[in-house]
Amino acid sequence: MRPYNFSAGPAMLPEEVLKQASAEMLDWQATGLSVMEMSHRSPPFESILKQTRDDLRELLKVPDTHHILFMQGGATAMNAIIPMNLLGRKGIDPAIDFVHTGVWSGKSLDEAGKYGNVNIAASSSGMHFRNVPVQKDWRLTANAAYVHICSNETINGNQFHFTPDTGSVPLVSDMSSEMLSRRVDFSKYGVVFACAQKNMGQAGLTVVIVRDDLIGHALPCCPSVFNWKNVADNQSMFNTPPTYAIYICGLVLKWLKRQGGVDRMEQASIEKSSLLYNFIDGSDFYRNDVAADSRSRMNVPFFLADESLNEAFTNEAAKKGILQIKGHRAVGGMRASLYNAMPVEGVRALIAFMQAFQQNHRIDKNL
Amino acid sequence: MRPYNFSAGPAMLPEEVLKQASAEMLDWQATGLSVMEMSHRSPPFESILKQTRDDLRELLKVPDTHHILFMQGGATAMNAIIPMNLLGRKGIDPAIDFVHTGVWSGKSLDEAGKYGNVNIAASSSGMHFRNVPVQKDWRLTANAAYVHICSNETINGNQFHFTPDTGSVPLVSDMSSEMLSRRVDFSKYGVVFACAQKNMGQAGLTVVIVRDDLIGHALPCCPSVFNWKNVADNQSMFNTPPTYAIYICGLVLKWLKRQGGVDRMEQASIEKSSLLYNFIDGSDFYRNDVAADSRSRMNVPFFLADESLNEAFTNEAAKKGILQIKGHRAVGGMRASLYNAMPVEGVRALIAFMQAFQQNHRIDKNL
C-alpha cells in the first residue's frame, strides 16, 4: 500500500493516475511516443489538450461566458498577471480591493501594489488570520478594478464558506487549494485561478477561468505570453504549453469523473475534514485555532499542546506511512492537507495515529 | 524498438530516461512518493534540484561568475523577462541590439520593443534567413543595454558557428534548441536561456544562465516571480518550481554524462548533421537552402523538389517509424531535428527511407 501523503502541494495523486502515467510513459495509445515527446501541434497532443479543457468545463460546470486557459508560473505569477490584465479596462478606478485572510492574499496584495492602488477592504490579520471577515464589514471601493480574495488559505487553514457579492465589480479568487473540491457558481466570478499541484496534478501548470469581457484589456507592460487575449485566441497554444502537466491534469480529471465528480468530492471533503476537526476538538492534546465558520476543508493546521513533541510526532508518523504532515514554517505545528486524492482511510489512519501518539506520550509524562 | 522522433520540440527523449521515469513514477528511491507528489521544500526534492543544477554546471562548465536559474514560461516568456531584467541598469542606453536571423529572433525583438528601443544591428531577412550575418557587417550601438542573438533558429535551420564579440555590452543568446549539444564558453555571455523541451526534457521548464552582475536591476513592472534577483536569492524556489520537469531534466543530464558529456554530443551532432546534409546535397530530389557556413546541426529543414509528394513522404515515413518530420508551417517542407536523444541510427534510417522514397517516386514519374 502507498503511504498517505498530507503535503499541501505538490501533493498526493491518485494511485490509478500514477499507474496509468507509468504505463503510458514510453508509448501513449500506440503512437510510439511519450506525451513528453509529442509536438504540441501534433494531433495526439491537441486531442489531449481539448479533452482536458472539455473535462474541466464539464466537471466544474463552467458557463459559456468564461474561457478556460492553461498557463504557467503558478499562483505567484498570477499575482502580477491579474493586475496586468485587468487594470487596462476603461472607466475603472485603478483601486484593487483585497480581503486579507492569510499569507497568500498577503502575497497577492503586495504584488498588485506594483500595478495599481491596493485597498484592504477587510482583513483578519489582527486575528492571526483565524477567520474570514463577514462581508457586511468589508469596505469596498465603488467601481474598483476588481475585488481579490483567496477562497482557501493553504497556510492559515481558513476558507470562504460564502460567495461574496461584489455587484458589477469583478470578483477574483485564488482557488489554488480548493479547485475541484466543491461546487462553485462561476457566473459569480470574473476570474478564478488555481495552480495544478494541489488538486489537479503536477507543478508548472496554472488553470485560469476568466469571463470573456475581461479579456483584451492588458496593460502595455504585460508580457505577450501572459496576455489573456493571446492565450484565449490561441486555445492556450500561444507558446508551447506545459504539455505533460496538462496530460497529468487530464488523467486526474478522468479519475475524478470515475469517482463521481465534484459533488462527490465535496461530500468526501466534508466527511474527511469533519472527522479530523471533531477529533481535534475533542482532544486536549491537539488544537486547531481557526474559527468554526471559517475552517478549511482542504488544509487543517493543528498544534500539539506540548510543542517539544513535534519532531517525535513527524518521525513516528512517517513510520506509520503518514508523510509530509509538518506545518508551514510561517505557522508552525502540523498541517494535514485533505485534497481530493486523499481517501477517507487516510484520514482515519491519521486519527488513529494521533490517538496512539497521544496515549503513548501521555503515559511518558505520567511516568 | 521505439520510433525515431524528429520533432523540433517537445522532442525525442532517451529511452533510458523514459524507462527510469516510468519505473520511479509511484515510488522515488523508496520514499513512497512520486516526484510529482513531493513538497518542493522536502529534502528529497531539494536534493533533486541541487543535483540537477550541479550536473548542469559540470556538464556545461558554467563559470562561478554565472547563476543557473530554473524558471517557467518558455523562451517566449523570456522575450519579455530579459528586457524587464536588463533595462533597469544604470548608465546604459535603452537601446537593444538584435541580430535578426529567423522566426525566433523576430519574436524576441517584437516583444523587446515593448520595453526598450530595438535596433536591428544585422538581419538576414532579405535572404529568407538562409544565413547568419558575419559580425563585421553588424551595426552595434555603443553602450546598448544588450545584444540579442538566437544562436540556433529552430524553424529556419541556421546556427551561429562563431561567438560574437560585443565588448562590454552583455551578449544574450537564445540557445533553446542547441543547449548541451556543443561546447560553449559561457564567460562570453551575459545571459543564455533555453526551454527544456528540445535537449533537456519536458516543456514547462526554462533554464537561464546569467552573469551575477546582471542580476538585481529589474524594472518596477517586472513580476516578482520573474525577477532574477528573487529567483537567484531563493535557489529557484521563490515560488513552487516545475518540480517534475526539473526531475526529468536531471535524468536527461545523468544520461548525458553516461554518454560522455557535451563534447561527445558535439561530435555526434557533427556526425549526424553531416550525414544528412551530405545526402541532401548529393540529391536532386531533396534540397536544403541554408548557406553552408550557417547550417544548423540541430534542425535540418529540407524540401522535396516535387512538393506534391509531401503528404506521401510523411505518411510513408510514419510507416517506417520516422515520426514528426513535417516542417514548421512558417517554412513548409520537412524538418529533421537531431537533438542529443536522436541516435545516429535514426539519421541512417531517415536517409535510407529518403533514398527508397526517391527511388520509388522517380519510378512512378517515369512510368
Structure description:
Chains A, B: It comes from Oxalobacter formigenes OXCC13. Chains A, B: One of its GO terms (cellular component) is cytoplasm. Two copies of one chain form a homodimer. The first copy, chain A, has 367 residues and is an alpha/beta fold. The first copy, chain A, folds into two domains: 15-258, Aspartate Aminotransferase, domain 2 (3-Layer(aba) Sandwich), CATH 3.40.640.10; 260-366, Aspartate Aminotransferase, domain 1 (Alpha-Beta Complex), CATH 3.90.1150. Helices cover 35% and strands 16% of the residues of chain A. Chain A is built from nine helices and 14 strands. Chain A has helices at 15-23, 43-60, 74-86, 103-112, 228-233, 243-259, 261-281, 310-319, 344-366, and strands at 4-5, 66-71, 95-100, 117-123, 146-150, 152-153, 158-159, 171-174, 191-195, 206-211, 286-287, 299-304, 322-323, 334-337. In chain A, strands 2-10-9-8-5-3-4 form a seven-stranded mixed sheet, sandwiched between helices. In chain A, strands 11-12-14 form a three-stranded antiparallel sheet, covered by helices on one side. The first copy, chain A, has a two-stranded parallel sheet with strand order 1-13. In chain A, helix 4 links the parallel strand 3 (95-100) and strand 4. The radius of gyration of chain A is 21 Å and the shape is globular. Chain A starts with a strand and ends with a helix.
